[in-house]
Amino acid sequence: MASATAASASASRRRCLLLVAALLLPLAVEAAVPHRHRLPSHHLASHNTSEPPTTFFEVDRPIQPPRGSLGPCSTLLLSHSFGATYGLPPVTAAYAPSACLAASGRGSLALAVLEWSADCRGRQFDRIFGVWLSGAELLRSCTAEPRATGIVWSVSRDVTRYAALLVEPGEIAVYLGNLVDSTYTGVYHANLTLHLYFHPAPPPPPPPQQADLIVPISRSLPLNDGQWFAIQNATDVQSKKLSIPSNTYRAVLEVFVSFHSNDEFWYTNPPNEYLEANNMSSVPGNGAFREVIVRVNDDIVGAVWPFTVIYTGGINPLLWRPITGIGSFNLPTYDIDITPFLGKLLDGNEHDFGFGVTNALDLWYIDANLHLWLDHRSEKTTGSLMSYDAPALVLNVDSGFSGLDGQFVTSASRHISATGSVKSSYGEITTNFYQRFSYVNSNCFSDNGTVQVVNQTIDGKSGVFAKDSSAVLLSEEIHQVFPLHVYTGTSDQVGDEYSLISFVKLGVNEKKTSGGKLGFSYSSLWNTQSARGSMKVKNNLVVGGLGETHEVYKYIGTDGCYFRDVSSKNYTVILDQSSDSCTKRKPYNGTKFSSRNDQSARRKLLGKKL
Ligand SMILES: *[C@@H]1O[C@H](CO)[C@@H](O)[C@H](O)[C@H]1NC(C)=O
Ligand SMILES: *[C@@H]1O[C@H](CO)[C@@H](O)[C@H](O)[C@H]1NC(C)=O
Ligand SMILES: *[C@@H]1O[C@H](CO)[C@@H](O)[C@H](O)[C@H]1NC(C)=O
Ligand SMILES: *[C@@H]1O[C@H](CO)[C@@H](O)[C@H](O)[C@H]1NC(C)=O
Ligand SMILES: *[C@@H]1O[C@H](CO)[C@@H](O)[C@H](O)[C@H]1NC(C)=O
Ligand SMILES: *[C@@H]1O[C@H](CO)[C@@H](O)[C@H](O)[C@H]1NC(C)=O
Ligand SMILES: *[C@@H]1O[C@H](CO)[C@@H](O)[C@H](O)[C@H]1NC(C)=O
Ligand SMILES: *[C@@H]1O[C@H](CO)[C@@H](O)[C@H](O)[C@H]1NC(C)=O
User: Fold this and answer.
1) Domain Peptide N-acetyl-beta-D-glucosaminyl asparaginase amidase A N-terminal spans what residues (predicted)?
2) What distance in angstroms lies between residue 299's CA and the mean position of ligand 4's atoms?
3) Long-range own/partner contacts, residues 505-508 (CB < 8 A, 24 or more apart)
4) Are residues 55 and 67 in the same domain?
5) Which of 157, 227, 453, 491 has its CA 20 to 30 A from that of 594?
6) Domain of 93: which CATH number?
């Protein structure tokens, strides 16, 4: 059936995952069908309904309600079983602010948490999904891959910054494109819940960290897809025209990004000349560098050099059970402050907000939320762009190969800086936003192309500096380093059988500082995963194998600390220690220490770091 084949072929592109094995297996590349790993059928046969489901999880700092706050006041927003949902409209539900929010008002909202909890049993690919409220994306995530005995998992995201949306009636939309047949039996049953916490009366003044208005830059319903834009190639730019209120005095774009299909493992893609020389026409190429470019009209206002999220079936699916890859359940978003450009946008006309991806192959899902702060004491603010510097990307590829073996070293850098002023009832405020990125990737094929080693580091800094004539109002900087190492080796290839050894190391190292009128904050995160595994593949099925993963998460900040050291092997957690202490004594003993009275430790930390 031609139509069914086309549907499943295009559906498979929408998975989080399209295994890179095809790339690692030049012998198999010529085959028309790329490798797709499935769980072995004997896993399904050993089905025992009385065995408890496995809990999958992403290591993250638990979200803590502010001390003394009341709650939670929880509302089920949507409950749905995602079976054959691919290519259908998103599942929607009317959203009305809960009675507790209506009663307390936005000003007393202390914390809002969106929780996705789901279960699944059987066999299924990892699927990308998105949650939108009135067109603004609230969560981008990837499902966990189920097992015969069932899995459960949940992901929580702090959605307090969307307070302006949460207090208005709207519509929740969830798109999770799933396919169910006799092989892929897993149906995802999910609940989406909003938990609210409130400041006890009397409420403090509304927090200026939260925007007054959130304008979605996404596609509008009705759609038979998610509300994200789909970017298919390097020249594809997807955009939306919109006008902003003429009393805006601050604007921040929050960008959601995920990469799939031919670009799911973009950082392992070799240059096209290597693929051409080896007649590997079905292997994704375009080299190993990608960046998302954000434009307002014709200006590049910022870039995203994304964290290399590895989805739950990525590289070797056995690596991510039950500890999932960093960011895979809760994909990171990226903020671009466009306040310096407000002078060009306050004319009441529509302006074009667009996204493109340098060197993109099919397929990137991108959208954004535009957070706007409005001047309630004036109808019109004015502004001007004072300086703007966005030189072209610097990209170098050092390439050498002979046959299937070779090494490619790619390096890149980019710098963007814009300064503009906005006159409002707060005075005339000058804002500078800057980004400075560097990247290096080494991609090495050896043993006649059967071994691939990729080492990559992305280093990105961005900051905002705002001042009026008398004082610095805000000075914040975020510095992120994303190291990545991927080793994959194929061996024992006989016909459609082979073994794959993988070793993956990835991490997020992040430092944030913020100072100004709202006080001072600092945080540092060191989050590293090392995973190794082997699998035997026969006829595109994983018929055996083992994966193990070790993760160390260490957060130190003015708002508390969190440490976790956790290891898993063969679906089982074999070590798990955590602490929320900020002191260094007795640190990693699995004992919980209170961070509440740890002011002296924090002062010590601050004194040292700054
Ligand atoms: C290397 O791989 C190619 C294609 O996969 C194969 O034709 C060739 O015989 C291999 N060479 C060696 C030395 O194994
Ligand atoms: C099913 O699992 C339960 C709990 O792990 C165990 O007690 C029981 O013996 C298993 N039954 C079979 C048939 O394996
Ligand atoms: C969803 O909520 C229903 C009703 O509370 C509950 O029975 C079910 O177990 C929940 N499912 C998940 C996956 O959390
Ligand atoms: C890139 O993608 C766009 C949008 O799908 C399409 O219109 C265009 O033809 C593509 N360009 C190339 C060179 O494939
Ligand atoms: C690639 O294909 C061309 C034409 O079919 C052929 O002449 C050439 O030898 C092939 N190269 C390799 C490395 O297989
Ligand atoms: C790649 O990274 C691994 C692990 O961090 C390291 O052992 C190796 O030396 C690196 N290789 C290159 C070529 O940089
Ligand atoms: C992995 O765990 C399963 C049970 O969940 C067990 O049957 C199997 O032997 C284990 N494999 C290894 C290599 O430890
Ligand atoms: C962990 O804490 C327990 C109880 O306080 C203590 O007995 C033990 O010695 C500690 N272990 C380490 C390695 O500090």
Assistant:
1) 64-390
2) 22
3) 505/529, 505/530, 505/531, 506/308, 506/310, 506/325, 506/326, 506/482, 507/326, 507/482, 507/483, 508/307, 508/326, 508/327, 508/480, 508/481, 508/482
4) no
5) 157
6) 2.60.120.230
